Amino acid sequence: MGIEKKEEGFDYKLEEMGIRIKDSDQLKVREDVFDEVTLLALYKLVHKKWISEIGGSISTGKEANVFYGERDGAGIAIKIYRIRTANFNAMSSYIVGDRRFSNVKKNKKDLIFAWTKKEFSNLVRARDAGIPVPEPLVWDRNLLVMSFIGEDERPYPQLRNAEINDPESLYECIIGFIDTLYHKAELVHADLSEFNILYGDKAYLIDMGQSVTRDHPRAFPFLMRDIKNINRFFAQYCTVQNDLEVFNNVTGLDTQEP
């Protein structure tokens, strides 16, 4: 009973700030997500007209929650990195060695703010390179607003849950994304798998907060892991290339089997 009152009070606090709730039953407000820092960021973005309404949960990940929202009637995705419960150590391994964020302080809040900015920057680079990703619209503190990838307020399914009509073509397409990301965006996704690809009218790469630049000390191991993940998934549907062959084709190296 006490929890229900607390959540109702938090809903009221959002509405009191001028943040319209699209569906209060679906929102399921949690204080570990909507803490004071997040509320301040949300308040700023609402009053700068980036967000008109916030609706139900799209996904809950290890570090962040994503909510459906609207901006002047158009669907958006609102990603909120949890300051209280995010895995500080796991996130820092992707920040350390990234020259873009060499001056980030070591405390948890600053790291998460940098991570949010990093995902925004990575999405911009990927989109500029022609990779289908959510369009990054704005970020503030631990909150990132992107275009919504889906239909009728429902996100496209993750690749692992999607019906794949032409796996061979889709496999080649995603290997092409890895190559384009490396050469044009100068990035390695670093967490690419059937969980971080949405598939609807086409394939979209998502969750790029951990993506690293090509000169990151662990770029090659991350790249090989991405390739192995994609090959593992598609091997059940079609013939895939050798992991090392794909790695060498992307990097231009001539790495041999150990």
Structure explained in plain terms:
This protein has 258 residues and is of the alpha+beta class. It folds into two domains: 2-151, Phosphorylase Kinase, domain 1 (2-Layer Sandwich); 156-251, Transferase(Phosphotransferase), domain 1 (Orthogonal Bundle). The protein contains eight helices and twelve strands. The longest helix is centred in the middle third of the chain and has 21 residues, at 108-128. It starts with a helix and ends in a 7-residue tail after the last helix.
Q: Strand pairing plus helix content: what structural class?
A: alpha+beta
Radius of gyration: 19 Å
Main beta-sheet annotation: 6 strands, mixed
Distance between the termini: 60 Å
CATH class of the largest domain: Alpha Beta
Strand content: 15-25%
Number of spatially distinct domains: 2
Look up the CATH topology of the largest domain. Answer: Phosphorylase Kinase, domain 1
Q: What's the CATH H-level homologous superfamily of the largest domain?
A: Phosphorylase Kinase, domain 1
Count of DSSP-assigned helices: 8
Give the ordered list of helices and strands.
Answer: HEHHEEEHHEEEEHEEEEHH
Q: What is the tally of beta strands?
A: 12
